Amino acid sequence: MELRIENVSKKYGQFWALRDVNLTLQRGIVGFLGPNGAGKTTLLRIVSTLLRPDSGRVSWCGLSIADYGLEFRRVLGYLPQGFGYYPNFTVTQFLMYIGALKEIDKRALKTIIPEVLAQVGLEDVPNKKMKALSGGMKQRVGIAQALLNNPQVLIVDEPSAGLDPEERMRFRNLLADLTGERIVLLSTHIVSDLEAAATEIVLIKQGLIVRQATPDELLAAAVGKVWLVNALKEEAEQLKQEYTLSSATRKGDLYQLRVICPEKPAPGGCVFTVFEQGRADRRLGGTVGRKVDRSRGETASIYLGVRYVLGHGEA
Amino acid sequence: MFWDMVKLELYKILISKRLILVFVVLIIANGLVVYGEYDTREKFYVWQSSTIERLTKEINQLERIPNRFPPQNDNLAELRSELELIKEQKFHNNFTNAFQFATGFFEAGPKLYLALLIFLITGDLVSSEFARGTIRLVYSSATGRAKYFAAKVFSGGVYVSFLVTVSALIVLLVGGIGFGFGGWNQPVQGYPGLPGFNNLELLLLQAGLTAAALQVVMLMGIALSALFLNSVVSVVLSSAIVFGTTYAYAAKGFGRLFFKYVFWFHLSLIEHFKEGGLTFIPVLEAGDTPVNYPPVTLGFSAAILLAYAAVFAVVSFVAMAKRQAPA
Q1: A105 and chain B: CB distance < 8 Å anywhere?
Q2: Whole-model pTM?
Q3: Complex ipTM, two decimals?
Q4: Which residue among A10, A309, B103, B292 is least crowded, i.e. fewest CB within 10 A of its CB?
Q5: A180 and A55: one domain?
């Protein structure tokens, strides 16, 4: 089971949505991370056969998906971003319709639909109208429709967009349960969506693959490169301009920033003294810095690694 | 699987709010025609009784004059004869029973509001999939675009037949309430091509021919829906084409000869069975050069409609299949 993306490029007018993308994906959840407009959705649309690349090819088990024709779609499950539905259909009717599109036998669907609904935790609402479902429930119906044909390639594009934190967490857990014998391509710009479940993370920026790594590798990328800095307003502004920040919080006059860079940050070339966190010394210009220590659990989020790699273009 | 898809496509149509609007329009429009007929009849009787009253009064006044002059006698005779005439006048119903009413409806319907009622639904058939984003699920599924398009067209065709059937029932019901349900077995008048047909048989034939001809209208609606991906634009544009060409034909001078061959005229296939058939004899204005038109037969009309159907089907499919699913 291998999905290979080879030299795939896509251009919209003068804008490169994807440039020479090469990836080899295997069983597990592959998270696509990157800022808005990075090219994640374009790449997933190409894999889902909705879009043809300008150059390059996508192959499934050694054969180009273009050569498979409609057959490739039989192993494909796709939940597009903001997926459309028929508001007056019940959940079952909607799944029957998608099942018919997937060319699944009607009798088989009668068995499959309750199963997938149970899988996504919607077994109690088969006769509820789609328009009456909450955002999270609709997304779960979206996953259910993608699972109807028990796909070997499951593509999920920005599934947690617009969901409240509780729904998002539930959805994340659901995705983690879906790995099994399939490749799950999950696009998001929310790092925490991937933390628990992703087996591999692909970072995309401006149509280029910046890095393909495991979460642990990304975590390691940030170790020793995250600095906790307390700064006054002017210095904080300077830091924001010169460095990649992962977070900024304000405490009174003081800003606490997480700066991501290999060396100790020195805004404007100013020399500052490293103090323990919380001991800002305004007499010294108010700037203090401390390397964040992984052993203290301070880099527990791969977000820092992601920010580091995206900010410094490390491949 | 194809039939399951058609069934669900039909279900989409059946549960759409627009369909309720379609039925409301049908009931109101037919109700208005019946009301109009009643109103005209009522006005006639009011006019008749008031005229009789006035004439009787004038006659009485003249009769009371003991020694009438000859002109007064002449006037009296004139008034008496006028009174007789008014008394003898009877209201000529346009429709005497539900079946006559229904056949009248099917003569005007295809080119007028039946076409509009089709556009109301078909204008949304393709564009709504793009607007909702459901087309992304369709285009990433194992169903090919040709098969999906065929399911759409097939369900559109079933809708047209359903619309014609329901229209016939509504018209019969409304007409029956207004004019009575009898007369279904009366022989048809004015259709030499249908010897021995009764009103019910004529209605069935009309409904069948209308349903067949309106498939072209349905395909046109789908074509415009696929081209513009906007239901309002496609409904307005379709209606403009229907009414525009119909009225352009009626307007003197402007493209009249050309519009005789535009397919709207051929939608009334029943005309071929009428006295004179579907005749395209141009009304010549002073200075016009007489043109010899080929004779128009049922086969000719059917060929024209089929040609349009083929063009619309190709345009719809190409417009839909070539279009990318929205991001």
Answers
A1: yes
A2: 0.80
A3: 0.79
A4: B292
A5: yes
